[in-house]
Amino acid sequence: MTPLNFPVILFIYLFFMFYFNFFPGQSLLIGPPQPIVAIVGDDTILPCHLEPAVAVIGRTVVWTRPDLKPSFVHVWREGLELLIDQHPSYKGRTSLFMDKLKHGDVSLKLSEVKLSDEGKYRCFIPSLGKEMTVELVVGKWTNFHCVRFF
Fold it and tell me: 27-148, superfamily in CATH?
């Protein structure tokens, strides 16, 4: 058995580094393992990012709540926010962080949280075939106690 020579080992190393770092299809869409907890009236962030980071500025990013009709919470497509099919209860309350899209961060900011916002949200990047789900739990302050309604 002959040992592998340095050029072969270098080639194999460079191949794998190139393949896993430069093909965005290899990225994973990462979200929180636990539910996000928010208080009525506050702003909250539903975390979602690609790892390794891949710029998504020119891609489509879709946030939905599958239990709603229409289910669209926020849609970003090729540099534009598409709000025409957005569920009415989210009008003017959702946004992405434009400066973070180039780093693969597609987290959703939800402003002025309502009790009705509680549920499971789906983040989807169609061109990469990647999706993940995050749960939002909403509570309300009452007499200095946080109460969660079921």
Answer: Immunoglobulins (2.60.40.10)
